[in-house]
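Data deposition worksheet. Section B asks for the primary sequence of the deposited chain exactly as it was used as input, without tags or linkers unless they were present during the calculation. Section C holds the resulting structure in token form. Section D is free text for depositor observations; keep each observation to a single sentence. Incomplete worksheets are returned to the depositor.
Section A, Depositor: J.P.
Section B:
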Amino acid sequence: MRKQSSAGISARHWPDINGEMKLGFMGRLFPALLSKAVWQYTADALPDVDIRELRKRQKKEYKAMVARTPSVGSVKDNMFASVMYLACFGFSYYKADPEHITMDVFDGMINAIYTSDVMKRAYKGKNCFDRKEIDRYVRGSERSKKRKYPMDWVFDFSYDLSVPEYYVTHRECGVCKIARQEGLMFLMPHICVMDYPTIEYKGGKLIRTKTLGAGDDCCDFHVVKKD
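Section C:
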């Protein structure tokens, strides 16, 4: 019998920790979950474009991008590993048709993702300041500083639950690294906006003055309790 993870997913579904990302379960899950919201929006935004053909090109580009992107370890061990798939989905959406996917259309696609029922359900009941969430960041920060994976995030983390508040200072970002790999750094400011609503869904408020995606030396996340 194949050994199962604690989440009930076979070990073969995790990314290859010694090479490139694998499509596997997680790689197929994101497109499936986001498909309805993204393509309904796209059909409305681009009525003169063959959406069926666009979806085919995006799917092909997504698979190729995942295959050429170095792994950052397993979803089980790395809290940001799943974000790599989300990034590949967004970047491949643009690459599928740069002529028609303008920045306004791309922004609309990002908005369609973070306002979708799927995204809201994913964060339902989660709390920024839950001890389990804080511990994930503590472990993640310690893990990141080992720099085992070149494409990985590297970040510092501190917190004070009496306020409550926490600070995440990203020194390196996996999404930025994919963007550089694909020659798409100009899309980063459009992707970084997703941090605000996702933190709000968990009852927090993001205060940020710098991002790596905008060319700064770090991403300075300061998260406080939502008003």
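Section D:
The longest strand covers residues 165-172.
The mean pLDDT is 91.
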